[in-house]
Amino acid sequence: MRISTTRSALLAGAVAVTLSATALPAAFAAPSSSAVISEVYGGGGNSGATLTRDFVELANAGSAAYDLSGLSVQYLPGAPSAGSQWQVSALTGSVAPGGRYLVAQAAGTGGTVTLPTPDATGTVAMSATAGTVALVSGTTPLTCKTAADCAADTRIVDLVGYGTAVVREGSGPAKGASATASVARAASFADTDDNAADLTAAAPSPVNAAGETSGGGEDPGDPGNPTEPGTVRIHDIQGTTRVSPLDGKAVTGVPGVVTAVRTSGSRGFWIQDTAPDADPRTGEGVFVYTGSAAPAVQVGDSVLVSGTVDEYYPSTTTQSVTEITAPKATVVSSGNALPAPVVLDAKAVPSKYVPSAGGGSIDALPLEPSTYALDLYESLEGTRVQIADTRVTGATTKYHEVWVTVEPKQNPTRRGGTLYASYTDQNTGRIKVISLDPAAPVPTANVGDVLAGTTSGVLDYDSYGGYNLQATALGKVTDHHLRREVTRKQKGKELAVATYNVENLDALDDQAKFDTLAEGVAVNLSSPDIVSLEEIQDDNGAVNDGTVGSEATLKRFTDAIVAAGGPRYSWRYVAPQDGKDGGEPGGNIRNVFLYNAKRVGFVDRPGGDATTPVAAVKTKKGVTLSVSPGRIAPASAAWDDSRKPLVGEFRFHGKSVFVVGNHFASKGGDQPLHGRYQEPVRSSETKRVQQAKEVNTFVKSLLAADKSARVVVLGDLNDFAFSPTVGALTDGKVLKPLITTLPKNEQYSYVYEGNSQTLDHILTSPGVRRFDYDVVHINAEFADQASDHDPQIVRVDVNAPDHGHGHGGHGHHGHH
């Protein structure tokens, strides 16, 4: 079984089936007398298995046909983590009375016997030993991850947990599943809503709607070792859409020349036809997946490959990679010349990114490689390509990957990156480069450097950024000497307030991390008066023992700032309730204020704790806080399993300044820009908009009590300046996003998949009348980084006259 880029053979999992809304039982309370999950097998293709694919079999114990239109089978790992998601396989047709219905799932590299012709085909790599399968009404993924929560979900028609699955019916999961055994119901299809009692382990026995058993309908036979090409060419396999017209079918003697070999991770080799057709939509290269076996071919070999065509989806929302699996390759000759690579440059790549399917799948849309960049890349999947003198737009990662652009004039930033300008203006020239030679990885490069000369290899696709060049020949890096910025020192009358995401800092981290982050504060930020920190963890980090304090972490950090030449900072925070603020399990992540007490005063008002909301209090002298430090509406559902904003009241030159430190919910779970669903759904945005509304409501309460109140809202908002999140935060023009006051080509603080973008923000109320703002680039563009975020700073003149006007500026770059 294969999943993700490591394609693990034994994943613990769970499966669910989705049905039409016409006949919903009351969760698990009423055992089904009609459609049930009759057999589950996750060992297909594993070592020792006979069958080549996983499957889920449904059965109808009723007296009338059961309509499956709009239903789905869904799967969940047996021990689901916070990031686990139900994987969906849509169904069509119906189950006859007393009949069966076969859903084929992912194929492995083992086994010799194929399934009977499936009635539906999914791509789920199920676990052989533990998981959950559900039959569900509809195709929307389930969200439940406990037996109780799933029992309460009325969309679930039937559910089977096996092995050690957490989600199951009744007293426990069905036992005995393995690489050679499925779990199946008795011939009566009896369902008492107790998986342990209803299903037993035995040799897998899949049956389809036609009554066929294993070996019927899909048997490719023994391809043997053909010496002549078969009738199928690679362009026939690739077809004119993203999904092969031969998906699931056996092919024999497909000819091609080996263009590249991958010996680690997802092992296999690429072949390319030397006699292409005239259709630019149909690719001429394909990946041959050998699984755990090292490829027994070499570059330049002319081969005939037999096996089964498979569309491999790295995850449920990505596009697929067309592959030949369970292969047998005959080497006809060696030392052959390779097909000339396709040149990817600004002339070749279209300016449009991807077609729209109104949020649906683009899998079935005919490719338009001259119109859309992703269609061009898809038409070249598995094909030799070449790039030359490409600018680096995403620094080399710890996984030895680097992002470059083949469109150098596309949204360039001042420092050499590529700006992510809007949801509709995608950067089509971005591509990730990976070396196929583990002994010669991609060299270290920063944004703005150039991968000089030619880089060539094959075009591939994965879930971590989409299309990528698997390089067989790498160019050399030309260093453009990108420097870390140093902002100017604040003047005596200026209050300097900064935000910095310090990436899960805790007292167990290496001293080097503390020292580098401290230098960023003391030197690059020129020792701000207030620093709002995100991602400070409790003192023992991911150790989950109830610790919630951060005193040791903050002592080490502030000591390191002094050692780096900065002031002795004091700190304020509100410790979260254990396990309630999300982030790394056990880490108890929170927002913290550091402040230089020699320059600015903190107004302590007692009573602020994890559950007490802060409120604006109107007085004759202006507005104050009910508690300081405090948290905004901590009981609101907007902050469930998420960081609560920290609010503090500061005094500078006799004036009050209210600072709100934020760390909004992450973008985890959003569909990728390069994925199969277009336009992508930004599901995580809903929570951030709720959070933004809570902060906006609080700021409005401050301004209602004193319209000239000086409020600085800042932090990692995990969203863009043009997002609905920032729109909700600024509603009523109570806050001004300072990132938009910079020149366009400087509006970024984070680099993701080669896009320079803004997740961090500083916003100010109308009472902040004169300011100077700067994003200080010290991390995001560099391969060597202490955090993946760049800090930001605003210098505020608190005594600016009422008739003054705020002005934005890019600070003082170039002081190194």
Provide a descriptive summary of the structure in words:
The chain has 816 residues and is mainly beta. Helices cover 9% and strands 31% of the residues. The protein has eight helices and 42 strands. Strands 30, 33, 34, 35, 36, 37 and 40 form a seven-stranded mixed beta sheet that branches. Strands 9-8-3-2-12-13 form a six-stranded mixed beta sheet. α5 (511-524) crosses α6. The longest helix has 21 residues, at 685-705. The chain is globular and about 85 Å long. The two termini are 53 Å apart.
What's this model, at a glance?
The chain has 816 residues and is mainly β. It is built from eight helices and 42 strands. The protein is globular.
How would you sum up the global shape?
Answer: globular
Number of DSSP-assigned strands: 42
> What number is the mean pLDDT?
91
Rg from Cα: 29 Å
**Structure annotation, total helices:** 8
- Which structural class matches the secondary elements? mainly beta
Roughly how many Å apart are the termini? 53 Å
* Helical content (DSSP H or I, runs of 4+): under 10%
Largest sheet: 7 strands, mixed
Pick out the low-confidence regions.
1-27, 216-222, 804-816
Task: Give the amount of beta strand, in percent.
Answer: 25-35%
Keywords:
816 residues; 31% strand; 42 strands; mainly beta; disordered C terminus; disordered N terminus; 7-stranded mixed sheet
Present the secondary structure layout.
Elements (H helix, E strand, L loop, with lengths): L13 E5 L16 E7 L11 E8 L5 E2 L3 E7 L9 E4 L3 E2 L4 E8 L12 E2 L9 E7 L9 H5 L4 E7 L19 E4 L9 H4 E4 L31 H5 L11 E13 L4 E6 L12 E7 L10 E11 L8 E13 L8 E2 L29 H7 L4 E11 L6 E5 L24 E6 L14 E13 L3 E8 L2 E3 L15 E12 L5 H14 L5 E7 L14 H13 L6 E3 L17 E6 L5 E2 L13 E4 L2 E4 L4 E2 L14 E7 L2 E9 L21 H21 L4 E7 L7 H6 L6 E2 L12 E3 L2 E3 L2 E5 L6 E5 L16 E6 L19
Parallel strand pairs: 1-10, 8-9, 16-18, 19-20, 22-24, 26-27, 35-36
Antiparallel strand pairs: 1-11, 2-3, 2-12, 3-8, 4-7, 5-6, 5-10, 10-11, 12-13, 14-15, 14-17, 15-16, 17-18, 20-21, 20-23, 21-22, 23-24, 23-25, 26-42, 27-29, 28-29, 30-34, 31-32, 33-34, 34-35, 36-40, 37-40, 38-39, 41-42
